Amino acid sequence: MRGSWYGHRFVGPLQSLPRVVITGVGLVSPNGDNLARFRANLLAGVSGVVPFETRHMGAVLAGVCEYDEAKYQSRKARRRGTRAGSIAIYCAHEAMRDAGLELDAIDRSRVGVFVGTTEHGNVETENEIASLRGFSDDVKYWSHHHNPRTVANNPAGEVTINMGITGPHYCLGAACAAGNVGLIQGVQMLQLGIVDQALGGGVSESIHTFGIFASFKAEGALGAHAEAARASRPFDRARNGIVVSEGGCLFVLERLDDARARGAEIVCEVAGYAINSDATDFVLPAAERQAECMRAALASARMDASQIDIVSTHATSTMLGDVQECRAVHEVFGGQPDVFINNTKSFIGHTMGAAGAIELAGNLPSFKDRVVHPTINLDELDPDCALNNLVVGQPIEVPRVDAILNNSFGMLGINSCVIVKRY
Questions:
Q1: Is the dihedral of CA 32, 124, 250, 252 positive or negative?
Q2: What amino acid positions are annotated as catalytic residues?
Q3: Using CA atoms, how far apart are residues 115 and 113, in angstroms rounded to an integer?
Q4: How far is residue 304 CA from its own chain's centroid?
Q5: Total domains, the chain
Q6: 326 and 249 inside one domain
Q7: How many angstroms separate the Cα of 400 from the Cα of each of 47, 298, 309, 310?
Q8: Nearest to 168 by CA among 146, 196, 203
Q9: Is the model's pLDDT at 12 over the cut of 80?
């Protein structure tokens, strides 16, 4: 197997393995419950951040999803399950439908479900504790559904039960890099020949746990603004923290030969990817490691920086986090005049484990329309976040979109990059 040297490490190109493509996209976001609506709102500058009430804290700001929970799931099953499971089920069905795949026409034992998550179980545990207080803390009133609701594989497992999928399923705990990591896992399982179709991506139910809001507030990193829609403002001098959001996105992934054989419409090809670790701090990211991750993804795709047309940034609207990523992006792409840069969290806040997948999805229509959606709420650029070709305020049409690099980073220093290209 041929490959290339990156630094002191050998990187095997994806081209030496079966090529993998995306053939379906299913998503729910704070400003759209399918890709068409989501994309339209990205181009129109529509935010999905709204006022939200949470336990012990009252009014906060959050990205809240609206979708039909009963479209693919009975009310009884929804009551037994979780919000993350419900989102994952919705996204899985939408992705399969978008891919033109009928479950009855394929071998369900050869379908894998790989769902990235930031965390799971906090929502259900907090709810049970709050409920128990009304029964003088008598644990006989603790729900017998609690254990299956809180196990780490829950969202992926709920998908398999709902859809009758008997292939492998699990969740990947990768903090806020998880959406990319779920996709990457699907690619790898296809290349190993373990599955024939993969549902890969990420989900988040984070807004339903007060603990995440309380913790970000304790860190001085919880976003606030008099206008909810303007609270998430990456790169802006006045940014003041993260807007917590829920959402999900799953992709149908297939080997190229299989997709072509069934006449599938191919959205794009997964060209390369990389995952690495900062190994420095619990919270503060390391620009050097982020730059290394982007370079490793380029090496795996056998591409150089000049061949990327859009860089989708992770930036979360924190003071230090945004600066570190901008340093990394400038180091890798600073000399490239035709690389355009945008950010999706400015529209929807931070969807945590779903972020990488949702943000990648929002840029995929650019392969067809050659339009780059902007970063919004950027009134005064922080000089430390200045990047060439940062698209601000309004979408722009560009000469070409043949390759997109999607950044997604998380706490404890996990970094992920995915590169997709036009097929």
A1: negative
A2: 176, 314, 350
A3: 6
A4: 24
A5: 2
A6: no
A7: 27, 19, 7, 10
A8: 196
A9: no
